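Researcher: Here's the sequence for the chain we discussed earlier.
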Amino acid sequence: MIESRGKCRLALLLGWLSSAGLGAEDSRPVGSLIDAAKEGNSVIRREAVERLGETGDPRAFDSVVGALHDDSPEVRRKAAEALGDLKDPRAIEPLIDGLKDGDSAVQWAAAVALGEMDGAAVEPLVAALKDSEPSVRSGAAKALGEIKDPSAVEPLIGALQDSDAKVRREAAESLGNFRDLRALERLAEALKDDDPAVQWDAAVALGRLKDARAVEPLIAAFKDSEVGFRTTLTESLVEIGPPATEPLVAALRNNDPGVRSGVTEALASMGRPAIESLTGGFRNGDPEFRKATREALLAIGPDAIGPLIAALEDTDWRIRSGAALALRKAKDSRAADAIAAKTKDAVPASETYDELIKKGGSGTEDRLMDALGFLGNAGMARDFIKCGNPELEEAGRRWLEDHGQTASNLPEKEKRKGPRWGEYQTIP
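Model: Thanks. This is the structure I predict for it:
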C-alpha cells in the first residue's frame, strides 16, 4: 500500500514535469524540481522536495529550507528529511527551528535530520537543550544521541533533570547510545523517575553500559514494578551479561518476593552464564538461599541439566547434594537417568551406614554423604548429626533443612543413641 502511494506521487510529479515540457532527460533536473516544489498541488510539492534531497545538489538547499514553512505538514516533514540527506551545515539552525513545528512528525523528522549532521551540529544542539520549548529540548537530546559526540554526554546527563518527561526520556535513551559510564549514577536515579517511560529508557541505557555497578539499582527496581517494566529490567540485566551473575545470585537472598522473582527470571533468561554461579550457591549454609538457587537453575531449563549432572561428581559434597535435589525436580529424562544411576551406587553404603560410621574409616565420609543424599531419610540424617563426625553432622543438618524439617540441637541423652564415629576403633 505504501509503495503504491509512492508510485502514484511519483507519477503525479512526472506528469507535472511532462506537462511543463521538462522530461526526465531535461538538462536542468534540479531546476525543474525546484519549480515543482512551488506547485499548487501539495502531493507534487512533497515528491519534488523528496527528490531534491536525493540529488545531493547544493542548489536544492534554499528550496528545501523554504519547504520547512509549507502549509502541508507532509511537505514540511519531507523537507526536514531532505535536509538530513543533503547534510549541509547551513540547515542546522532551520532544523532546530523545525523542532518547534506544531506537527509531531515534523519535529521527529527534524530531530533525525539533525542527527545526520555530525559534529557541526553538536554545539548548537547542546545550546538547544536549554531552549524554552520542551519540543526543542527533546529533539536536541535525540539528535545528540545519534551524533554520539563525547562532549554531549555531560549536557545530556544534566537533561535527565529536565522538568519535561519527554526530554528526560530522550536524554536517557541517548545516553544509552553513548555507553559512557559517566552517566551510570544519574541513570540509576532515573529508575525512580515519576514517569514510567523515563524509567524504561533508563533501564535500557543501564543495560547497554554492561557494567556490574548497574546491576544493583536494576535489581532494586524489581520491587513493586509492573510486568512490562520487569521484562525490561530482565532484558537489561541479561545484556550486562557475566558481570551481572554474581550480584544476581546474591540477590536471591532478598526478602522481597517481587525482587526474588525478578532476579530468578533474569538468571533464567541469562542461561548458561549463570549456571556456575548458581551451582556454587549450594555451598551456602542458608536453606532458603539454596532453595532459591535450585529454583533458578530449574527455571533455566534444559541447558542446566548437563551441568547439574556433571555436578553430581563434584569433589564438594555440598555441590553434589544440591545438584541431586535440583535434578530430582527436573522434568527431564537425562536427570532421571543420572539420579537412578547414582542411587544404585549409593545402595551398599545406605544399607550399612551404621557399621561404616562405627568403623570410622578414613575417606568413608563421601560415600556416607552420597548415601544420605540419594537414599537417606530423617532417621539416617539424625544419626549423622549424633555420630560425632563434624562433616557428617553438617550433612545431616543440611538434609533435614533441605527437606523442610528441624535440625535443632539434640539433648545429651538423645546424642548417646545411635552409631558413634570410630567407636569400633576404641574397643580393646
